[in-house]
Structure formats: C-alpha cells, structure tokens
Design a protein that fits this description.
The structure is a single chain. The protein has 355 residues and is of the alpha/beta class. It has two domains: 173 residues, THUMP fold, CATH 3.30.2300.20; 165 residues, Rossmann fold, CATH 3.40.50.150. Helix 5 crosses helix 7 and helix 9 runs parallel beside helix 10. Bound molecules: S-adenosylmethionine. The site of S-adenosylmethionine has 22 residues, from helix 7. S-adenosylmethionine binds next to helix 7.
C-alpha cells in the first residue's frame, strides 16, 4: 500500500497535492502526486508502504486543510466486470496480507457527475461486507479498535483497495458530515459554522468552547445563520452588519444588531467569541483577526479566507503564518486549525483559540 488517496472538493486537487507533498517532506517522505482537475481526489505515490505508514503516523488529517479523508491503498484493480465486482476484490485480499478489518467503507470521489457512482457504492456496501465476513476478512460485528478496509471506486470498473487508519481519519463517510438544516435558521450559511465546530472540537470540549452563556460578536451577520448557531448555544450576540437581520432571531432577545462596518467595530467589553463571515481579501481579514486576538478583545474566533483565483494554497499559508507570528511575537500561545469544509466553496474556514 504505497499510495495515499486524499479526498477533496472537486477543483481543489492542486492545493491538496501541494499540501500533502509539503507536509510529507517535513518528515522526510518524498513522493509525487497524480491529479486530474475536477476528479475530487489526489493520489500521492510513495516509494513503499513504509513511507505511507510513516505519513499516517506523523501527519494528522486534522492538520491538513484540503483533505477531507484519506486512505493508504495499493495499485488499483481495473477493468472490473459489471457482473461481478465482489470476487476479484475477495481474491485480491486473500492473495495479500489477509488482514481482518473491523469495518468496510465503500467510497468514491465527491466530484460533479458522480451521483450514480455514489448510488452504486451505497448499494455495494452490503453485498461486499457479507462476502468479506464469509471469507474471514471482516469481523462479524463492527470493531472500532481495528483499521477500516477501504474500497475506493474512482469509477465503476476501477477500485483502489486499502485501509483507513482507525486513529487518524474523519469519522464521517467520505469525510462529509451529514448535518441537518435547522428549520428556524435564517440562512444555509448556518451549516458552515456548525460544521466548523464539529470539525474543530472534540465532543468532550463542546461545553467549554460554547457553553456557559458566552458573549459573541458576529461580523457580517445578516441574515443571521451564524448568529442563530451562537444563540442556539445560549450566547448573547452583537450582530454587526448594515443588512437586515431575521426578525424571529431578533425576537429571541439575545441579539443586538449593530449597523457598523465589521472591520472597524469593537465591542463595548471583551467577548468570548468573534466570528466573521465577511467576504473580503484574506490579508484584510488576517489583519483584523490579529487585531482582535492581540488586543484581547476575544480569545476564540472562527472566520473564512476567501480563496484568490491564483496561488490559493500559498495565500492561505501566508495568512496563517502571519497570524501565528503575530501571536508568538506577543507572547501568546494559540491553537490554530483550518479546513476546507464541505459547506465551504471558494473559501476555507479557520478556528483560533488563544490559550
Ligand atoms: C456571506 S454573508 C453572511 C451570512 C451570515 N453569516 C449568515 O449565516 O446568515 C456576508 C455578509 O457580510 C456583510 N458585510 C460585507 N462587508 C461588511 C462589512 N465591512 N461590515 C459588516 N458587514 C459586512 C454583508 O452585508 C453580508 O450580509
């Protein structure tokens, strides 16, 4: 298993490839990437399976911005017949290390036009799981203490066979969280903030981060999807935007609408959270975030970097570095995380906490 498959949003394969090559080189692992724009995944090809294992041991998926999920796999089985895809997979595994896995995940890229492939992988899961169990390749009951068997169909007749590391993976199928749109939320953007929290926080820290009647500022708040999430966690919110806020949300009594410029506004007192969904230049957002954190106006923030047309990866890295340097220079320890979320399109979402 000398190939690492990284799942990403279609169109961001270049960024995903640059990032994994850079991260792997830091730990002395060098390989090359095979990508096709729009295919929704990257193949990172290494010398041998030891290198692939080393990457999984020393690089955390949570530290990668552009990858949603990843698996270490072998060269793909191609030209699978539509009549029987099960037997060649069983034969391949029996001829290999015969490792018993705790669960099987049948995956495919999240690319445009892959709707039928997605339907196929969903339907294929049950028959392949049954055959795997019959051949002693899968435990009778799901076992979370074992690595997952991964079957990644890049097409109907081509499958990469390998494994997903039990300790270094997304808990979600294809790395995509299934979030339900809250019926009272004023905009679909609300899911972005919920996904950010679910991505960046361990369930055990949920209350520390969000509970206890915290105070928040939401910059670029209208119509109120993010504010709704903050209020839903019991926070009082200053919602800053010249636009109109959702009336039902305002009627909750937990929101103060401030008609000011989000890049200029400062709260009357220090708050726990500042969130910002204003679409602007990443460097402008960076300067604003540094100002809030260094001056102690908040100690947690979630915000977006709208990705530029060119050099998207470089721009993101530069901005994150500027923030890290500014905090370090001011003697502040911090936790910095960034992810290209499922609900993000041309932007990435960042979380920073001053510790
Ligand atoms: C993507 S929308 C925000 C959606 C919001 N987060 C939600 O969940 O409903 C961006 C908002 O930023 C506001 N905006 C743009 N520039 C701003 C600025 N300088 N100050 C305050 N708000 C700004 C816009 O009026 C717009 O409502």
């Amino acid at each position: 298993m000398n190939i690492i498959i990284l799942y990403c949003r279609a169109g961001f394969e270049g960024e995903c490839a640059l990032e994994i090559q850079e991260q792997a080189s830091v730990i002395g692992v060098f390989g090359y990437c095979k990508t096709n724009k729009g295919q929704g995944f990257v193949e990172f090809v290494l010398n041998d399976s030891k290198d692939a294992k080393k990457v999984f041991k020393q690089v955390q998926l949570s530290d990668l911005i552009f990858a949603r999920q990843w698996a270490r796999v072998s060269e793909p089985l191609a030209n699978l017949s539509r009549e029987d895809r099960v037997q060649p997979i069983i034969d391949f595994l029996l001829a290999g290390d015969k490792k018993v896995r705790g669960l099987v995940t049948v995956d495919c890229p999240d690319s445009e036009g892959a709707a039928q492939l997605k339907t196929f992988v969903r339907k294929f899961t049950s028959p392949i799981a049954k055959a795997l169990k019959q051949n002693g390749l899968l435990t009778p009951k799901a076992d979370p203490d074992l690595d997952l068997l991964c079957l990644f169909f890049s097409d109907f007749d081509k499958v990469y066979i390998g494994e997903i590391d039990k300790d270094n993976r997304s808990p979600n199928h294809l790395g995509i969280p299934r979030l339900k749109f809250p019926k009272d939320a004023p905009s679909r953007s609300t899911l972005k903030l919920e996904e950010a929290w679910r991505t960046f926080f361990h369930p055990d820290e949920w209350y520390d981060q969000l509970g206890g009647h915290k105070k928040a500022v939401d910059l670029g708040a209208c119509p109120g999807g993010w504010t709704w999430q903050l209020v839903n966690q019991g926070m009082d919110v200053f919602a800053v935007d010249h636009g109109p806020m959702n009336e039902a949300l305002m009627a909750s009594g937990h929101v103060t609408h401030v008609l000011e410029d989000g890049f200029v506004y400062k709260p009357p007192k220090k708050v726990d959270w500042m969130v910002c969904d204003i679409v602007d230049k990443p460097k402008r957002v960076t300067a604003m975030v540094i100002d809030w954190l260094v001056s102690g106006q908040c100690n947690r923030t979630v915000f977006n970097f709208k990705l530029p047309m060119k050099k998207r990866y470089q721009e993101v890295m530069e901005c994150l570095q500027l923030i890290e340097e500014a905090l370090t220079k001011n003697g502040m320890s911090s936790r910095i995380q960034a992810k290209h979320l499922y609900h993000d399109r041309e932007e990435i979402t960042c979380f920073i906490q001053v510790i």
